[in-house]
Amino acid sequence: MTNRLSYFNAAPQAMEILLQQESYFHQQFRESSSMSMTIWELVKLRVSQINQCAYCIDMHSKDALKLGEKPERIYGLSAWRDMPLYTAQEKVALAFAEQLTACQPVSDELYYQVLDTFGDLAMVDLTVAINAINSWNRMVKAFKPKVEIYQPK
């Protein structure tokens, strides 16, 4: 089997759109009082788990660890509802991410939980961020870049 094409080389302008989104989220979530980088990393990791995107699971696990995330919270993320490791705010974000990733309608109850928890701007940012990680997952699933295996030091 031959390597698949590099989507960054084949369509750099299209990929720049996704990278600009990432840059925006880094700025927004570092400065936000209602949304955090930790929540964003947990959402990206959980969405990548749902989509079974090995490359993104590897990347976002490493990114979360760099942010100081505890390994137990990464290990337990696929069962977050039953784990006492996540805040109420994180649970709302994860529930919303799962609902949107499954392409299911968002109930009024969940909608207002997200809105009340995060506010207008952060809710829209979170929605776009969930859309973005789903886009990245689909790019990776199609083009299969090499997964770098984590080697603990």
Structural commentary:
With 153 residues, this protein is an all-alpha fold. The chain has one domain: AhpD-like (Up-down Bundle), CATH 1.20.1290.10. It is 69% helix and 0% strand. The protein contains seven helices and no strands. It has helices spanning 7-10, 12-31, 37-50, 54-66, 71-75, 88-101, 108-143. Helix 3 (37-50) runs parallel beside helix 6 (88-101), helix 3 (37-50) crosses helix 7 and helix 6 (88-101) crosses helix 7 (108-143). The longest helix has 36 residues, at 108-143. The mean pLDDT is 92.
List the total number of helices: 7
Order of helices and strands: HHHHHHH
Q: Give unreliable regions as ranges.
A: none
Radius of gyration based on Cα positions: 16 Å
Provide the β-strand percentage band: under 5%
- CATH class label: Mainly Alpha
Number of domains: 1
Fraction of residues in helix = 55-70%
CATH superfamily: AhpD-like
